[in-house]
Design goal:
By secondary structure, the protein is an alpha+beta fold. 22% of the residues lie in helices and 19% in strands. It folds into four domains: 61 residues, no CATH class; 136 residues, no CATH class; 50 residues, no CATH class; 74 residues. The radius of gyration is 21 Å and the shape is globular. Bound molecules: iron/sulfur cluster. This is Cobalamin biosynthesis protein CobG.
């Protein structure tokens, strides 16, 4: 993730953040100039790619970029090393493949959905279908183009795998034909059939609140205290019935879910569950991780044949239509196919040479970790793309060394330091996104 070249000044304690201008997030049509060339970020709602789109993306990476595709923590795709003048050619390729349905909305199609939904018998609804409907409605709403490129919709099928990814609007399938809509610490229940429409209405209510506050907020959490979003009023205006979550309804909701979430439904927080492990997902889908979050064009093509490919927020892909027998071929392509792989859960920011802020080539310095404990390498204190939840923090420092969870470690000693890093969960966040 490139640094934001126009960061807002840090607000005084207790004061609301004031954004003087729109966000500078790159897109498919707005390229970002980085030290290794230009960068394009392609929004893929629910990470979805058809087989044809997989081919086009791989071809574009080879013909116009550095031959690689980065998978972001929102399941989007980035092309790097692009020539400055290739924007029109890239846009034409993407548009022809159906990857640019609305040029005016291309940066606001930020939709993460449970990637294994409908594939493994878990979950209470097929949120991949919700994602497609939400995307169509989003692109058809002229006002929605005013959302920032950072505003995020999260659609969780009830297993809790993506609900904790920090969505501005989070929908969680809740059984009994209902969904819980979370926004800014409030939760309402809506009919599942209304869920995508409700998410869009909630986003519109956010924009109204942001304009009313006058602070230029890009995300719900940036709204000043007291300028809450009136979700229920927005849903009523949109003709959507909604009710606050009541204590006496929660048990019935949990009983109906095919896989109950780990924690009781709470009014202010969506459920948290583990992401699926790499490997087979049911009889006809396979989950792979991209080493350090990057695929070569050949690795992307190795996902085919597939009914469809879903890039994931864990920097991998779910290959729909691939059975367990595909494991040897996916392995041979250099993809991570087993939960026991020491590279599963290891991630890194762009680092050198792509990012001028970086103190090291963190991707070259990264070493295998310990299965089950995410490790993230960062070239500077921004820690771009770090995982959610608990993880081992490996931070480059001047002079060529690193801090591993705050302890100084020479670059040559990273392997023992990372594999013996503490196992107790961290209790406090250490950085901002
Ligand atoms: S060095 Fe890494 S963490 Fe720092 S701004 Fe660059 S990409 Fe982000």
């Amino acid at each position: 993730m490139p640094p934001d070249p126009t960061p807002a000044p840090t607000p005084a304690p207790g004061a609301p953040r004031v954004r003087e201008r729109g966000d500078a997030c790159p897109g498919a049509l707005r390229l970002h100039s980085a030290d290794d060339g230009h960068l394009a970020r392609l929004r893929l709602p629910a990470g979805l790619l058809t087989s044809r789109q997989v081919e086009v993306l791989a071809d574009a990476a080879e013909a116009l970029g550095d031959g690689r595709i980065s998978v972001t923590s929102r399941g989007n795709a980035e092309l790097r090393g692009l020539a400055g003048g290739c924007g029109a050619e890239l846009a034409a390729l993407l548009a022809e493949a159906g990857l640019l349905p609305s040029p005016t909305h291309e940066r606001v199609r930020n939709i993460v959905a449970s990637p294994a939904s409908s594939l493994d018998g878990l979950g209470a609804a097929d949120v991949q279908l919700w994602a497609r409907e939400l995307d169509e409605r989003l692109c058809a709403a002229p006002w929605a183009a005013a959302l920032s490129g950072r505003f995020l919709f999260v659609l969780d099928d009830g297993r809790g795998d993506v609900a904790g990814l920090g969505g501005d609007v989070t929908l969680v399938a809740a059984g009994l034909g209902t969904a819980l809509l979370h926004l800014g610490g409030r939760t309402v229940r809506v009919a599942a059939a209304d869920a995508p429409r409700a998410a869009l209405a909630a986003a519109r209510a956010f924009l109204t609140a942001a304009r009313g506050a006058g602070t230029g907020a890009w995300r719900v959490r940036e709204l000043p205290e007291g300028s809450g979003v009136d979700v229920r009023a927005a849903l009523t205006t949109a003709g959507i019935a909604a009710e606050p979550v009541r204590e006496d309804m929660r048990e019935a909701v949990r009983e109906d879910m095919r896989k109950p979430v780990e924690e009781p439904v709470r009014e202010s927080a969506p459920p948290h569950g583990a992401p699926p492990a790499p490997g087979p997902l049911g009889p006809a889908a396979f989950h792979v991780l991209a080493p350090l979050g990057r695929l070569t064009a050949a690795q992307l093509r190795a996902l085919l044949p597939a009914d469809e490919v879903r890039l994931t927020p864990w920097r991998g892909a779910v290959v729909v239509g691939a059975g367990p027998d595909r494991a040897p071929a996916l392995d041979a392509a250099g993809l991570i196919t087993r939960p026991g792989s020491p590279w599963a859960g290891v991630s890194a920011c762009t680092g050198r040479p792509g990012c001028a802020k970086s103190l090291a080539d963190v991707r070259a310095d990264a070493v295998p970790g310990r299965p089950g404990l995410p490790v993230h390498y960062s070239g500077c204190g921004r820690r771009c793309g770090h995982p959610h939840g608990d993880w081992v923090d490996v931070l480059a420092v001047p002079g060529g060394g690193y801090l591993v969870d705050g302890a100084p470690v020479p670059r040559t000693d990273l392997a023992p330091a990372v594999t013996t890093a503490r196992t107790a969960p961290r209790t406090a966040p250490r950085t901002t996104r």
